[in-house]
Amino acid sequence: xxxxxxxxxxxPGRDPVLSRRSIRRYTDAPVxxxxxxxxxxxxxxxxxxxxxxxxxxxxxxERATLAQIPEWHPYAKMLPSAPxxxxxxGDPGDAKWKTLWPxxxxxxxxxxxxxxxxxxxGAVWLxxxxxxxxxxxxxxxxxxxEHVVPFAIVPFGWPQARKEPSDRxxxxxxxxxxx
Length: 179
Ligand SMILES: Cc1cc2nc3c(=O)[nH]c(=O)nc-3n(C[C@H](O)[C@H](O)[C@H](O)COP(=O)(O)O)c2cc1C
Known about the structure:
NADH Oxidase; disordered N terminus; binds flavin mononucleotide
């Protein structure tokens, strides 16, 4: 008898969720506005609590702006070499549930990473929230208003090299029925 479709393990390398890796080295080739729009469309397709969509975005192409971020973000030295970066921000005041916006923003970052993988682009999630010093530095650099919280920065570019998928499936982390 045929196996039900849901029991087939997706093949690493073909499934964008399984093949996605953090890419931190990019070629000089540009990423055009149409691709950035696809990434943002994927971001905004994410689930959010009460469908409140508290996310906001700042697209940065200015090299001089990107070059300032590694001055205070210790793990962002790839940024000046990326053709484009998207800052994801949350507007908690806009949401019905004021505490759930980080989950909503995380879902939209992950959606962008997977869309990038589908497009052949490289990307990496650079953490900002909830680290106060990174939030403050980004707020000043990008003139972000007080009621909006910078959540993450995601640089995008064409990968200098692809990385192998990383299979992290670990049965020991999974409990069934109860802990
Ligand atoms: C919340 C969060 C913050 C992260 N911050 C950084 C960062 O500041 N700089 C960086 O190079 N990678 C950052 N990463 C990427 C992780 O280092 C990476 O996802 C992890 O090492 C697993 O590797 P992979 O993405 O290639 O599977 C972050 C990832 C997450 C989810």
